[in-house]
Amino acid sequence: MKFRPTPLILLALAVGIRCAQARLGESEKQCDARYGTAVSSDVDPLLGEQKSLLFKKNGFLVRITFLSNRAGSIRYEKEDRTQLTGDQIKLLLQFNASNANWRQTLTEKDGVLGWDREDGKAEATASVDRKFLVIATAEFKLFLKAKAAGVEGF
Fold this sequence. Notes:
Structural class: alpha+beta
Shape: globular
């Protein structure tokens, strides 16, 4: 017998995800208001001393890395390390859509799941096992490429 979620279960899922959402471009103050106090704060020397905060909310771990004092990258995963469902991934993408649509660009065949936002201002990647989803601004992705090439700051 195949499990079929009822509308009530889907509503509960959406409410839980809605409470665990962060948005690209938010300030640290906005992220704190959304989640409360971060459970950890790091500075990643591999990313040029970019600040990273880890929040726990409604069974999710949300790691936000800031670029120019704005959320440039957000990593979502479940606290119990179980898979994100397809519906959860869709909702997290929607919460970071900024009135643009997402289109899937990579599938399991590619070894990773990937999406681009149609306005070109964000990308998302999920592991094939769906244990995490990372959504990043185009500016953050460019920063990472420049850092890797040794030309950051130009």
